[in-house]
Amino acid sequence: MRVLVALIAIFLIVSLANTRPAQASSMPETMFYQPVETDKNITPAQWQTIWQDSVKNGIKTVIVQWTSHGDNDFGGADGWLATTLRQANENGLTLIIGLHMDPDYYARLSELDTAGTQPYLENQLGLSLHQANIVRTKWHIDAKGWYVPLELDDWNFQQKARRDIISQQLRDLAGHLDAPLHVSSFSGGKLTPDAYAKWLSSLRQNNIYVWAQNGTGTRTLPQIARKAYLEALPCNIGIVLEAFKQTSAPSRKFTAVPTTPDASNTKCHPVSVFELRYLPWGALLRRQ
């Protein structure tokens, strides 16, 4: 009798296990990598291990934050960044290549009125288009997409006129590129969740891939507000899981420590993680 009861119990356990819904992967298939100059100290052999470990942990696509940062192009076609991105390609990783970033982007936007916004953004996106041409013709990297690192937020783009300007200019840029354009955004609580979602959705309708940061690392907004903004987003807007916790004050140089990405409120969305150096196999990047 005891044997029969035991067999029944085992049967029930196995049956329940087989009827449970499949668990989502703990790591998204897309991650960001934000190059900084000290990363040049990583040897090619160490980079090889980093990219191999990325693949082993389920990463398939890498969004590179930028390849031009102010006057720094990280050595150009023969530099350390181009070299390691070619390594990433060789390890089977799909690359979405970041373009030009003005280090004074946020300061400039805060200084400019609406009339001055258009020529400034036109110039910056023109530099990004130029960088895409350089990467395509000289870096010998198989880019499956392009990323504009000029992040969109509802502080600097609270005014509809400014949102209209950047939206039109991004559409124009996308029309000149040979692969899809990606952008990212974050909310500071200046627009309502519905208005913020409507803005991002309008960009996505023009075949621009939009990634919204979940804000758990910077914690600019309280948790209940972050939840409201994420839940308002349509399913075709990607969500960036921040794998860090900011330790610096807003007015100080940015510092952070790794933390487990919060995948709640991602529902049906594409998901990525920010960024490589805060992930376990990217720890070497934090020690440079």
Q: What order do the strands of the largest sheet run in, or round the barrel if closed?
A: 1-2-4-6-8-9-10-13
For the secondary structure, the number of strands is: 13
The biggest sheet, with number of strands, parallel, antiparallel or mixed sense and barrel status, is: 8 strands, parallel, barrel
Q: Identify low-pLDDT runs.
A: 1-25
CATH topology: TIM Barrel
Summarize the helix and strand pattern as letters. Answer: HEHEEHEEHHEEHEHEHEEEEH
CATH superfamily (homologous) name: Glycosidases
Note the overall shape.
globular
Could you tell me how far the N terminus lies from the C terminus, measured between alpha carbons in angstroms? 65 Å
Helix content: 40-55%
Approximate strand percentage? 15-25%
Radius of gyration equals 21 Å
Structural class: alpha/beta
The CATH top-level class label:
Alpha Beta
Question: How would you characterize this protein structure?
Answer:
With about 290 residues, the protein is α/β, with parallel strands linked by helices. The chain has one domain (about 30-285): Glycosidases (TIM Barrel). It is built from nine helices and 13 strands. Helix 8 (about 225-230) links the parallel strand 9 and strand 10. The longest helix is centred in the middle third of the chain and has 26 residues, at about 115-140. The radius of gyration is 21 Å and the shape is globular. Residues about 1-25 have low confidence and may be disordered.
